[in-house]
Amino acid sequence: MGTATNRRKYNVVLLKDPQTRAEYKLNLANICQVLQEQYEEEEPDLNSLWQNIKKILTSNCQEVIDLKKTQQKDWITEETWRRIPLRKEKKSAINNSRIRATKAQAQEDQTKANREVKKSVKMDKRNYINSMAKEAEQAADSGNMRQLYDTTRKLASKYNKPE
Fold it and tell me: Three-class SS string for the chain?
């Protein structure tokens, strides 16, 4: 049996943002230019070339898009992800308060923050489902059956597309 390696997953969803995508392309172009100039002078062997390319791609991903958070749903927006730690802080404020009045106020704040997070998550999911339905409709109109079936499977059940 081979040894198990921890594969790093990068948050490629961030590449949908045009500014992040442009920054990624610019970084990659600059690094590739340097690599090309380096190898014009000498003839590299295949293994060292592959190792350099792999190192370039991983370092570029780490710089621009960072690692993917575990169990992060693609449909939850960044704004919602920013609200979740605030809700946790409010929960810890309840546990840390010693006086009844401050504890009651902290509970009210936490309840309000919890409602906001739940409302935001519900809205994000609704928007995601609507966008998936539009995507399926466009695929049906254009006759792209593969995309249509993939999106309907995503909407209908737990779906993991093989890589």
Answer: CCCCCCCCCECHHHHHCHHHHHHHHHHHHHHHHHHHHHHHHCCCCHHHHHHHHHHHHHHHHHHHCCECCCCCCCCCCHHHHHHHHHHHHHHHHHHHCCCHHHHHHHHHHHHHHHHHHHHHHHHHHHHHHHHHHHHHHHHHHHCCHHHHHHHHHHHHCCCCCCC
